Amino acid sequence: MAAVSDQTAPRLIVGLGNPGPAYAATRHNIGAMVCDELADAASPMPASFSVHKRTNSEIAQTRIDGHQVILAKPRSFMNVSGGPVAALCKYFKVAPADLIVIHDELDIDFGTVRLKRGGGEGGHNGLRSISQALGTKDYIRVRAGIGRPPGRMGVADFVLKPFAKHEIADVPILMADSSDAVRKILDAGLEAAQNAVH
């Protein structure tokens, strides 16, 4: 699959998470939550998601700040996100270079947003699945920091729990900062967005 960016093509923005109400407010679903926030910010009116059976995703085709985008939330579980994401790229003819993936990041302090293209997955099974399915790591990641689990809590338990009481007030800020980072990428490209966000 070609990794060359096509400036006339829509950007594919994927928010990672697990399906169903039981997972909706958990740390692992911050990517999907940010995708919802981006849909609310779409113009000329908020966008709504609909099931796209061919890609096993919920999608919204819309514009954000004048940019044509496809917002997508895979309906698969996080660890097998690659199938839906690869299907989305193929169906909408989007190169990996034009893919933006929003996800939770353990190795970044809670509330911090970092941007990068390519590189390792840091133990994130959703990213690993995407890289394997695409055959490349050359896509942009918007990394929403959730921090490390406290004490001896296991990583799997931590990411599948709702945010802690002392974090709740700051979750909307993390979502807004992540959403703003995506918009900066759309407007000015990754490097300029990194300079603004980091």
From TrEMBL:
Highest taxon in the source lineage: Bacteria
SUPFAM superfamilies (UniProt xref): Peptidyl-tRNA hydrolase-like
Enzymatic reactions: an N-acyl-L-alpha-aminoacyl-tRNA + H2O = an N-acyl-L-amino acid + a tRNA + H(+)
Active-site residue numbers: H28
Top-level EC class as recorded in UniProt: hydrolase
PROSITE patterns per record: PEPT_TRNA_HYDROL_2
Family per similarity comment: Belongs to the PTH family.
Protein name in UniProt: Peptidyl-tRNA hydrolase
Gene from which the chain derives: pth
